[in-house]
Amino acid sequence: MSVAFCCTHFLLAQSPDVLKIRQYRQANEHTILSEFVSFLKLPNIVGDSVGIHKNATFIMEAMKKRGIANVQLLVPASNKTVPAVYGEVITPGATQTIIFYAHYDGQPVNAAQWAKGLSPFEPQLLSNSLEQNGTIIDFPTADKVFDPQWRIYGRSASDDKAGVMAILNAYDAIVKSGMKLTVNIKFFFEGEEEKGSDFLHEILQQYKNLLQSDLWLICDGPVHQSGKKQVVFGVRGDAHVEVTVYGSKRPLHSGHYGNWAPNPAMMLVELLASMKDENGRVTIKDFYADVIPLSEMEKKALEAVPPVDEQMKNELGFRKREMKDHDLAQAIGLPSLNINGMNSANVGKNASNVIPTTATVVLDLRLVAGNDWKKQQQRVVEHIKSQGYYVTTAEPTDEERSKYDKIAKITLSNGYNAQKTSMDLPIAKQVIAAVQSTTTESVVLLPTAGGSLPLFLFEQYLKAKTISVPIANHDNNQHAENENIRLLNFWNGIETMAALMMMK
Amino acid sequence: MSVAFCCTHFLLAQSPDVLKIRQYRQANEHTILSEFVSFLKLPNIVGDSVGIHKNATFIMEAMKKRGIANVQLLVPASNKTVPAVYGEVITPGATQTIIFYAHYDGQPVNAAQWAKGLSPFEPQLLSNSLEQNGTIIDFPTADKVFDPQWRIYGRSASDDKAGVMAILNAYDAIVKSGMKLTVNIKFFFEGEEEKGSDFLHEILQQYKNLLQSDLWLICDGPVHQSGKKQVVFGVRGDAHVEVTVYGSKRPLHSGHYGNWAPNPAMMLVELLASMKDENGRVTIKDFYADVIPLSEMEKKALEAVPPVDEQMKNELGFRKREMKDHDLAQAIGLPSLNINGMNSANVGKNASNVIPTTATVVLDLRLVAGNDWKKQQQRVVEHIKSQGYYVTTAEPTDEERSKYDKIAKITLSNGYNAQKTSMDLPIAKQVIAAVQSTTTESVVLLPTAGGSLPLFLFEQYLKAKTISVPIANHDNNQHAENENIRLLNFWNGIETMAALMMMK
């Protein structure tokens, strides 16, 4: 075989090693899930230093119990509340070092939004997903087995405590099954991913020597929507632009002044409509100009991605995708412009007969390899200017109001660039082969994920490569209420992580 | 002189009658304002039946004290909490009957939004408007005079307790100055105008015989922005259309699905942008088709309206009006389409990286003579259909979602048509002449106001004519926090109402 993405052309099989890992897991399901549930019971809201420290302590204990060496907190000098948890296992004779990354902090929660009987930090077992009429069931007694379709509901069940636990149990399974690592492994569990990893760069700099490796293996996010395992070689970058346009200084009666005074909501509507054509393509000048074309290998990988458009459209309840000529895998390979939110005065019961004074939109720019986030923001600014707007960064003064027909206040927040690792690298091929060895289905290879992570930091501070191997079910409600992990995904995740620790 | 709107061509003078009214007022300012302030202290929030009844009782007492006959509550059979207050004065030999209309209910209040030291129902005297750095001052002792630039701040100070008090004091001034009415007068003070006059039609039907007249004289709203008195012959009708468009059933991560999943905010933006051209004209088919052209007299009146565009643009802080070819007086003579409010997901600190599930807009349609409100709403619906939307009145079902590319839920709320009285009628000329007799400035004659009142009810149920003669300052903050009346406007209002009671 040449490279793994053509693996649909021959018989796929699971390796004997993987079957041993599975046997170990099957024999230890109750213990594994008991520890996982205890972990999920610890509130881990990002930014809550007390909760974060309890979680870090829990992980350190779990690591020490497994005989992992050099367990410690990596603490950024300027913020001691967001430690990463580190540990390592040196393998005699190994020439490669892989750092397994997951994060243990979770998104903020609104318990009131969770379904009846569920609560973010009181994990529950369900017979299926809520959408498929799953109901709460008791955890089975030690003599009973777990149905792999069951799910555990709780904050971070999938994002990303499942990652932490899959990695630790994979190591356990290898050791306890009498198998051997093929590489040195290091563990790095981050504690502030959900806030944007503001201090990650400090940790990488401070612990530069400790964190040398051949690859960071990122275990975060969901498998492919088709249910197949996937290896993801990049992430999109991200940047935001908030725009507010202005009408009258005070709300005007829409009868007395309607269609005489400028309506900022209508102004914003016209401005935003000018940013896309009828096929969903962004019309801002040079928006797609810097995109580095896909390599031949990436193109072939994309062609092999199982089509999920119809499945996802049915699941999500719409019929027409935004970009006429691009399916999901193609669309996320392009820079994007999305409205995250838009507001002007009120709708619903608070609506009143006014001409609003302002209208605001938050635009989300996703970036791919080749894009520079500041340049991309600037293109949006230039486009707004080209539509006749005077652009400012503050509330317009009376003088500005008297001088310009159209005024936009633009707030450019911090962003970061995309990151991509070449599929052609020898270590990339090792990763693909390892994941493929765990499944009889072809592994999906994605040049980039649609989402964003600050993976550029690893390159910038450590010159390190990154590849993501996610494990959660795609319908895991990540970041929202009713977050969950399907047990089968967790079990498969353990096998995947173990195969990576024994990569050939 | 032929008709009054050409009165700029000759010397304007105030009539001797008006000067007598003024003398009376000057001699009684303290008494008049003391009663007005007591009235303003009574909370009158529309829908609060207890407050409304206290106000009605206060007015009845004030009428009886003045010797007005047949004072009574007119109570709609199906809602006893919203009585109108009625009274009458029959003038021997008079052949005409004028009903003076004002309303005593007020808009809801949010005391926290009022400026420091001000409170909706604790009226205060200020040395000027807040915008012109007015400060709170004590009411002067009985030996001191009131500066006419002073203002009283409180809910309904201008809208519309000033109307009630100007009418009652005008009658008082005539009687106490030994002058005579020339017409029979009836008083009609409504108690639910700010909620849309839902039961007014019942009152008009039940008390049909009592409410016969040659004219309803509506004393509500502000004088012209130029500061000149105005007579207004019509109001625009009003109707609303709320539109919600749909994307995915659940919020999607704007990274994972950005620019693949449809973004309802962007869909709404494109839909709304299709409704207007670059000159602010509505592009919905036949939107302006039914407008009855202005009569020659109305055209001349419009030409004579003092230009206020520059003044108002400065005051309101913008430079470019919405419709390129229409000044304020012209713009409000057309049917309008305004965005009252627009929302999709969140902006500001609650913004998140989502593709919203829905986007909603509330459209306000103002209507002029010739428009039918249901037909106008239907034109908006047809336009939305013409943009490829499937239109429904409920949340879309899964079946509908799978069947249609674009789905809009449309809610059509109740509206009403415009109302206009001809400027050519003899009684219209009498009104114009009466108002003109009170001022050395030319009176502004407006074919229609921009705002809406359900004046069609008077025609529908009583076959009655209506003409509006407003008295408040245009910067009175009607409906909002810091509502106020400038004393000069109140004094002038008394003179105007008196002149109308003595119209020739």
Set down the secondary structure blueprint.
Two copies of one chain form a homodimer.
Chain A: H1 16-27, H2 29-40, H3 49-65, E1 69-74, E2 84-89, E3 97-103, E4 124-126, E5 136-137, E6 151-153, H4 161-176, E7 184-190, H5 200-206, E8 215-218, E9 230-232, E10 234-235, E11 237-246, E12 252-253, H6 264-273, H7 296-304, H8 309-316, H9 328-331, E13 336-345, E14 354-355, E15 358-367, H10 373-386, E16 389-392, H11 398-403, E17 406-412, E18 419-420, H12 426-436, E19 444-446, H13 456-462, E20 466-468, E21 484-486, H14 487-501
Parallel strand pairs in A: 3-7, 3-8, 8-20, 9-19, 16-17
Antiparallel strand pairs in A: 1-2, 2-7, 4-5, 4-6, 6-21, 10-18, 11-15, 11-17, 12-14, 13-15
Helix pairs in contact in A: 1-4, 1-14, 2-4, 4-14, 5-13, 12-14
GO molecular function (chains A, B): metal ion binding; peptidase activity
Keywords (chains A, B): Hydrolase, Metal-binding, Protease
Protein name (chains A, B): M20/M25/M40 family metallo-hydrolase
Protein model, in words:
The structure is a homodimer of 504-residue chains. With 504 residues, chain A is of the alpha/beta class. Chain A folds into 2 domains: 4-212 and 219-235 and 418-501, Aminopeptidase (3-Layer(aba) Sandwich), CATH 3.40.630.10; 237-291 and 334-412, 2-Layer Sandwich (Alpha-Beta Plaits). Chain A contains 14 helices and 21 strands. The first copy, chain A, has helices spanning 16-27, 29-40, 49-65, 161-176, 200-206, 264-273, 296-304, 309-316, 328-331, 373-386, 398-403, 426-436, 456-462, 487-501, and strands spanning 69-74, 84-89, 97-103, 124-126, 136-137, 151-153, 184-190, 215-218, 230-232, 234-235, 237-246, 252-253, 336-345, 354-355, 358-367, 389-392, 406-412, 419-420, 444-446, 466-468, 484-486. In chain A, strands 1-2-7-3-8-20 form a 6-stranded mixed beta sheet, with helices on one face. A 5-stranded mixed beta sheet of chain A has the order 13-15-11-17-16, with helices on one face. Chain A has a 4-stranded antiparallel beta sheet with strand order 5-4-6-21. In chain A, α5 packs parallel to α13 (456-462). The longest helix of chain A is centred in the N-terminal third of the chain and has 17 residues, at 49-65. The radius of gyration of chain A is 25 Å and the shape is globular. The interface between A and B is large, with 87 and 87 residues. β13 of chain A pairs antiparallel with β13 (336-345) of chain B, so a sheet runs across the interface. Chains A, B: It comes from Lacibacter luteus. Chains A, B: This is M20/M25/M40 family metallo-hydrolase. Chains A, B: Keywords: Hydrolase, Metal-binding, Protease. Chains A, B: GO terms for molecular function: metal ion binding; peptidase activity.
